[in-house]
Design a protein that fits this description.
about 25% strand, about 240 residues
């Protein structure tokens, strides 16, 4: 099924389409995603048991995190609007021998068709790439079962994030493709929390992530939210 929404920037999808062949190149433009993947998975598994759970990966790209979820025993659906990226993700399943259901579909359309169907929803490094992040959050919650967990990650709108997340990463170290991030679209934790406080959710944790370009590794840091950060929340149970 192929369904999209207007809550996207076509130029961003075009950029991911143009680089889709490199998703699984460990030294290519997405190498930092491979390097931070263990930390992303750890953040999820610190809160939920994935084995046998229905997990939705929103904005799955070439399937790097979707496969990690499947390797942990989850029943994974990966959503993305980049057709070329999904083709790469699907092809890589022949190498990994894992099972992931990849769909060219927006989270809004998926949630409308599959309400309250997922035990866990992950939306990582995506909110800063869409015109209306709150609509994405609403759709994620609609797709989530009562009591289910939603995991978000994004970039803080700070001078440090601009310096390290854009200037250094994209232009100096060149570990991220140029044009991947746009500072005006970064989201302060206070802004995200303000939005979440209007929803029927409980915020369980907020934690930062540090990336070391020298060691090419990442680590969780509960207090350092200056650049990348995660939010873990639970949808309210039905009364």
């Amino acid at each position: 099924m192929s369904q999209t929404s207007n809550n996207h920037y076509q130029h961003e999808i075009d950029q991911f389409d143009s680089q889709a062949a490199f998703w699984w190149d460990l030294n290519g433009p997405f190498k930092t995603l491979h390097q931070i993947n263990p930390v992303r998975l750890k953040y999820i598994t610190d809160h939920v048991q994935l084995h046998g759970q229905k997990v939705l990966d929103v904005g799955c790209g070439g399937g790097i995190f979707s496969e990690a979820l499947a390797q942990a025993g989850a029943q994974v659906i990966g959503l993305d609007l980049s057709q070329a990226s999904l083709q790469t993700a699907q092809l890589h399943l022949h190498e990994s021998a894992l099972e992931v259901d990849y769909q060219l579909q927006s989270i809004e359309s998926f949630a409308a068709q599959n309400p309250a169907s997922q035990d866990t929803v992950c939306c990582l490094e995506m909110l800063e790439h869409v015109p209306n992040p709150e609509h994405i959050i609403d759709a994620c919650l609609e797709a989530l079962k009562p009591g289910g967990w939603l995991f978000l990650s994004t970039l803080n709108r700070t001078p440090k994030a601009m310096l390290l997340g854009i200037f250094a990463a994209e232009h100096v170290l060149k570990i991220v493709p140029k044009g991947t991030h746009h500072f005006a679209q970064f989201i302060k934790p206070s802004e995200l929390v303000k939005v979440l406080n209007t929803k029927a959710v409980t915020i369980q944790n907020i934690s930062g992530m540090r990336y070391n370009p020298i060691t090419q590794s990442a680590s969780l840091h509960p207090q350092d939210l200056d650049i990348n950060y995660f939010v873990a929340l639970q949808k309210a149970n039905d009364s």
